[in-house]
Amino acid sequence: MEKFFRLKERGTNVRTEMVAGFTTFMAMAYILMVNARMFADLGTVSYNAIYIATAISAIVGTVLMGVMANLPLAQATGMGLNAYFVYTVCFGLGFTYANALVLVLLDGIIFIVLTVTGLRKKIFHAIPQTVRVAIPAGIGLFIAFLGMQNAGLVVDNGATLVSLASFNLFSGSASWATVMPILITIGTLLAIAAMSQKKVKGGILYGILGGTAAYYLLGLTIPGFYNGLNAGFSFNPFAAFSEFANLSFGKVFTEGLNFMPFIEAHGIGAFVVTMLSTALAFCMVDMFDTLGTLYGACSRGNLLDEHGEVPKMDKAMLADAVATTVGAVCGTSTVTTMVESSAGVGEGGRTGLASLFTALCFFVAMFLAPVAQLIPSCATAAALIYVGVLMMNCVSDISWNSAQMSVPAFLTMAMMPFTYSISYGIGFGLISFTIIAVCTGRAKEVKPATWIIGLLFGITFFLTH
To answer: Burial, 461: exposed, middle or buried (Cβ in 10 Å; 0-12, 13-18, 19+)?
Structure first.
């Protein structure tokens, strides 16, 4: 184990990697439930089928990441891409569930080819240095925003899109049932920070477990809190697998290639344009979500090599591409490296051994679907917010006195949480860097690949939004 994962070389041990892997899983467990609920809205596939599909694709991708790239990163169905799959591609454009899976499979195949040929790594090198430096901070803001939303701390008030949740128990605008989980998040965050300051190993994990315990203890103060808590528990571990086999597995082949209903309804011309633009959107978002997360998480864990690059990037991206194809066959949307992996990195994870522990947790979760729901989002949200804090230190490396460098960096950071997409932040950073360079007579500083990627992002924005 020491020889394969190089634990001592990276300053870690088995216990640290185990804690890190479990912490990453705890931060990612919500994906199993959220993705399953989202796909169930389609009506043609069940919650249980997608739960199993999500778990299997996460296991395959995470194991490959750990074994091939020796990185403490986990993979699962991308949260932005699944919403695009369900609500835009299926409900909005009119493709069937199986049709949309074909686009995901195409995405994975394209990435396998790009990775094997080395083109995907060259695309990463086309990202300007100032944008690359800003990526970890942007991801930090993004996952902190995710955590605040999951906790209910930040809400949509209808007027300003985001606002602070109400704590006013006296006016009737808030109740103890809504305020209590938010206080759990805040308390857990502060506890994690205090333990980190005291150099307590496993502080994030202890915070999540402590927050979970506090949540259920304080539930005693809320009438009806425990009503229906055990509803839906099934001790038959194979019930969900049956639905998976019948409703989602292999549908990309048995039903996905039949696009005739769409063509008959919209015409062949609309089919070609919609097909190409949708495939481009899947590819662009998946590629730069993965590249951004790889760089951001490795930067946070001091895992970048002497050239400031992700070690074994080609193998990491190949693991991602293979996982996407497996996900399409299983019946879920694009699989990508998850920003929540940073929770495990923040806990000390430095090798692929942490990924294997995360994959093991996903394997166990397949047979314990209801139990996974017992970890409240208010506890894991605190971990995400804290990791967001840890990822902000790179902003000191940005040349804030240079508009050519600071504006693209700022847009990269700001657009990630504001657009709910890592790739869109990178897109705005690339495009702004290129335009400013041209307007200031520095067009020669822009690499040809940067021009091409910026153009593709522009096409994606205009055709898919």
So the answer is: middle
Q: What is the largest CA-CA distance in the chain?
A: 67
Cα–Cα separations (whole angstroms), residue 109 to 188, 259, 279, 323: 42, 20, 12, 10
The model's pLDDT over 92-141, given as tens digits with 9 standing for 90+, comes to 778 999 999 999 999 889 889 888 888 777 777 788 889 888 887 887 88
Counting residues of the chain whose pLDDT is more than 70, the rounded percentage is 94
pLDDT at 232 over 60: no
Cβ proximity of 97 and 45 under 8 Å: yes
pLDDT digits (tens, 9 = 90+) for 151-171: 899 998 777 888 999 998 888
Residue 336 bridge partners (DSSP) = 76
Backbone angle region of 6, left / alpha / beta, with phi > 0 → left and psi within -120 to 50 → alpha: left
Q: What is the pLDDT of residues 412-448, one digit of tens each?
A: 999 988 887 777 888 899 999 999 999 999 898 888 8
Distance from C-alpha of 107 to C-alpha of 325, rounded to nearest angstrom: 8
Sign of CA pseudo-dihedral 224, 226, 230, 232: positive
pTM surpassing 0.85? Answer: no
pLDDT number for residue 94: 84
Contacts 24+ apart (CB under 8 A), 266-273: 266/94
- Summarize pLDDT for 328-354 with one digit per residue, the tens: 999 999 898 887 788 888 888 899 999
Check residue 201 and give its pLDDT: 67
SS3 of the chain: the string is CHHHHCCCCCCCCHHHHHHHHHHHHHHHCHHHHHHHHHHHCCCCCCHHHHHHHHHHHHHHHHHHHHHHHCCCCCEEECHHHHHHHHHHHHCCCCCCHHHHHHHHHHHHHHHHHHHHCCHHHHHHHCCCHHHHHHHHHHHHHHHHHHHHHHHCCEECCCCCCCEECCCCCCCCCCCHHHHHHHHHHHHHHHHHHHHHHCCCCCHHHHHHHHHHHHHHHHHHHCCCCCCCCCCCCCCCCCHHHHHHHHHCCCHHHHCCCCCHHHHHHHCHHHHHHHHHHHHHHHHHHHHHHHHHHHHHHHHHCCCCCCCCCCCCHHHHHHHHHHHHHHHHHHCCCCEEECCCHHHHHHCCCCCHHHHHHHHHHHHHHHCCCCHHHHCCHHHHHHHHHHHHHHHHHHHHHCCCCCHHHHHHHHHHHHHHHHHCCHHHHHHHHHHHHHHHHHHCCCHHHCCHHHHHHHHHHHHHHHHHC
